[in-house]
């Protein structure tokens, strides 16, 4: 019998979007986007949710908060650098003990080392290398190490950015004088961010083809900017540049991540799901 005829029919919402019995790992688990994803993944009945981040205290805090909202859920927090081979191997052993194997891997790391927002003429190689290592190299090594414990029909999702597919409009940042994320430099868009997010798109397509014979899908979510109480001048210019005339809310990406993680996207691989309010449409 042909493989296509043996597939379960996807008709009801539960057929398409349920994560019942699935084990999910999120790198960058201490971040706001990962925390938002987690609520929807848990509501969709994933069996185990494993949050991974190099900041151990923060990722444990996120896990504790989710446990209050989803009492009894199997949520764990792991401290691990995605670009550290020894730590990754230790993580794999831990995951095998807790869950046996995984169904979904989400890479949502956002590395911002010291002086991350420095202007281009002053950008230091150390800052560039540290950021690139977390945002891009870590995605490769995390995938490399976790492939052996991924189930057939698994899904890998890299979180890219609209700035991985289009250049930033620097006029948006021209009048910005503050930075809610700290440091001595105003909010801007560093070149390393664009380079790493574009690199994730190339990695998505490479891994999609490489892992196709294992029936593991690889796609990238390409989000636009999220409102996070940024400088008012930045907000005003960003909204002006966006056809839907607003920035995203964190939860605007929960539906797309569920689509990519679930059987709803089982015939999709090597693709970009762009969710940016139309920002990249013009």
Description:
- With 282 residues, this protein is of the alpha/beta class.
- It has a single domain (11-170, 191-230, 250-275), classed as Rossmann fold.
- Helix content is 37%, strand content 16%.
- Strands 3-2-1-4-5-6-7 form a seven-stranded parallel beta sheet, sandwiched between helices.
- Helix 2 crosses helix 8 (254-261) and helix 5 packs parallel to helix 6.
- The chain is globular and about 55 Å long.
Short précis:
The protein is α/β, with parallel strands linked by helices.
- Overall form: globular
Q: At the fourth CATH level, what is the homologous superfamily? A: NAD(P)-binding Rossmann-like Domain
Largest sheet: 7 strands, parallel
- Note poorly predicted spans: none
**What percentage of amino acids are in beta strands?**
15-25%
Question: How many structural domains can be distinguished in the coordinates?
Answer: 1
